Amino acid sequence: MVISSEFANLPKVEEFTVAFCKKARLAEDQSDNMAIAITELVNNAIIHANKHDPRKSVTIRVCYEPNCVIVSVIDEGGGFDPDQVANPTDPQNLWKQNGRGIFLVRNLIDEVEINSSPKGTEVVLTEYHPDK
Fold first, then answer.
1. In angstroms, rounded to a whole number, what is the distance separating the alpha carbons of residues 97 and 111?
2. Could you give phi then psi for residue 90, rounded to 5 degrees?
3. Range(s) of the domain holding residue 74
4. Residues 6 or more apart from 45 whose CB is under 8 A from it?
5. What integer pLDDT is reported at residue 56 of this predicted model?
């Protein structure tokens, strides 16, 4: 799925996420967690990476494996160093309005890999089937 960097596309992303979670046979709690993670990542891509530029895209790719589903969210921003993102659980960061997205995603999904470059960032999510 490819969308332009506009919040009006979020309902399409939500429908797409529900459909691929069902096809991947994820449990209800896994599907809920995936929906939260995908929404967070797409929001981050639109706001922070693509800077609300509708000429830039956010791409969501899904790969079904026998024991898991692998989802990539790819933006066209300038990249970032995930090791430089402040820890939202540090006392000095507790009341900040943002900065919790990656932390949240890492706590919801089995495996999270971030590949960032000056041409964009790809966040790869792997969620294992409940029966594997």
1. 25
2. -65, 140
3. 2-128
4. 5, 58, 73, 74, 75, 77, 121
5. 98
Residue 50 is classified by DSSP as S
Name the residue with higher pLDDT: 36 or 84: 36
Match 């659980």 to its residue by tokens. 89
In this prediction, residue 89 carries a pLDDT of 62
Report the distance separating Cα 54 and Cα 48, nearest Å: 13
Q: Domain tally for the chain?
A: 1
Check residue 43 and report its DSSP letter.
H
**Cα(132)–Cα(115) distance, integer angstroms:** 27
Considering the entire predicted model, what is its pTM? 0.90
CATH number, domain of 84, equals 3.30.565.10
Helix (H, G, I), strand (E, B) or coil at 22: helix
Distance CA 77, CA 45 (A): 7
